[in-house]
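Hey, resending since the last one bounced:
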Amino acid sequence: MADPRPLILVVEDDERSRKLLGEVLRDEGYIVVDAASGEMALREIRRPMARFDLVLLDINLPGLSGHHVAREIRNDALHGKIPILAITAVTQPDAVVEILEAGCNAYLGKPTQMKEVREMVALLLQEE
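The structure tokens again:
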């Protein structure tokens, strides 16, 4: 029997931030898989048994950017409709438009308050 708890993919290259996000989300009762790069994120998304409910995505990643990852997720037959929450230090209006155009549903600017993360995650999971 599958675990009914939401499965969240956290994509963040900064290890400390990735661990903190994972810890906060696990404390909320979510199952968390993490990835340190865009390439790792796409490998996780494309695993045959992967059924993610939400992706938290850093935009400024080494290698494949968060923009590229978001577009790839949107083109994935299984995960194309799941919510993507961008978490980024880039908050200029043009950059935010690019984030949304890449397929992200919402964004939070860094530094991020964990209360905001919890609330946004809960909101995006309700909309699913």
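The beta strands are 7-11, 31-35, 54-58, 84-88, 106-109.

Sorry for the duplicate.
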